[in-house]
Amino acid sequence: MKSYLKLVNFEIGRFMKIYLVLIGLTILSQLIGVIILSKSYVANANEAIYEYLVPFGQFIEEYGRMSMMSVVDSIWFMGPIALCAAAFLFYIFFIWYRDWVGKNTFIYRLFMLPTARLNVLLSKATTIFLLVLGLVAMQLILLPIGSMLMKWNVPLDFRTDMTIREIINNSHYLFILIPDSFIQFLINYGLGFMAVFVLFTAILFERSFRWKGVLLGIVYCLIASAIFLAPLIYEFGIQASFFYPVELLIIEIILGILVIAISIWLSKFLLNKKVTV
Amino acid sequence: MIEVKELKKKFGRKQILNGVSFTANKGEITCLIGINGVGKTTILKGIMNLTPMNSGQIFIDGKNLSKDTYEKITFIPDAITMIPTMTIAQAMQFMQDYYKSWNQSRATELLSFFRLKQEDKISSLSKGNTAKVNLLLGLALDVDYLLMDEPFSGIDIFSREQIANVFTSHLVEDRGVIITTHEINDIEHLIDKVVLLDNGIVLKEFSTEEMREDEGKSVVDVMREVYQG
Description:
The structure holds 2 protein chains of 2 kinds. By secondary structure, chain A is an all-alpha fold. Chain A has a domain of 97 residues. Chain A is 82% helix and 0% strand. Chain A contains 10 helices and no strands. In chain A, helix 9 packs across helix 10. Chain B has a 6-stranded mixed β-sheet, sandwiched between helices. A 3-stranded antiparallel β-sheet of chain B has the order 2-1-4, covered by helices on one side. Chain B starts with a strand and ends with a helix. Helices cover 33% and strands 26% of the residues of chain B. The chains are: A mainly alpha, B alpha/beta. Chains A and B meet through helix 1, helix 5 and helix 10 of A and helix 2 of B.
């Protein structure tokens, strides 16, 4: 346990520079986005009302009121989130391959540590999970700050104020990141966690059997997806309303846990018996 | 004692090891000799469970390798096993964090023995100094067995001398060492036992002292006989 925690701390430290850059970019982009979009809206309103003498009511009818929705759906807001998502997707692979590829032989050291090799895998997965949660937490802090910035820049009559929950619920991608119930949160992040473990297993297949491993990894990903999606395919593709919604939820949770357990078990086997440095 | 029994390993269709067996005792330096590609490094990796074997058995003091064995045995590969962006001090701290067998006073002694500065980044070191850091990280562990893969490969003569001096010092004394090397001349006088490998098998396993005393032959003489005879 102690080694696992040390490894988590170590892995987080290794990603910290890139992580801080991602955080910095997100803060800058989202807050600058709020200011630019707010100012541009106010400039438009000023131009329409003072230069073209468009009545206030007509302006609102034509352009609508400014709200955080205009901001969160813009590239300023979505761009850094997409960038972070892409960075983490890349990092799922990079977190392993950087220790193997080229002249770097750090994987020798990791595998020669006097601790279960599974701890190496679990620490890498935990690192990804914790850092993703960190970004989500930061998003929760940035939303009210952005909202406040908009209020400073756009007069009351020209804006629609929304609570943070309303903003999230009205945005598809933010709703996935920050769902409104704990169960939904567990499902969304459980799915993500499951995907990380499945991909880690596929990577270890490749690291164990090289080219044959690539194929085995792909096959494993397909099998894991098939196991997890089987009830959904049946429900939505073959026989609608076969399961009660709550039944489907329970089955999916069980299958998700099963896929994670199989992935960890297979990874442990590969790490101890098959992987080659 | 490290016991290697009937190790077999295939890479693709190529049989690298075809039933390799030998033993290496504590307090002795055992040298694995063979041309490139003969499987010397693979044997060391196999002992450390860093690459799976197709068959065979490895025992360390009569037991199979487990996670705790890594406190008793260490492997010093021919490339450094630390992150290049770390300083030597950070690398030592990493070792201290994870290994109970890490001996900081020995590490400090080795630092001055090799004339290394702990604030230096590993990536900025010369090849010779990188090899010394690699050796330091292995030797500063209070382990019973040391496996070294080509410690003299591609480094300057002065670094070679320094590294060779390690073998005559208390830093290696009483430990069991398995070493692979091409530069047999540098350490011929230090080796206790030789395992000559070719075509995936052990051609000859002998004690250097007995060979010298009984047959009056040096390691190089026996190598000529076995490989060229």
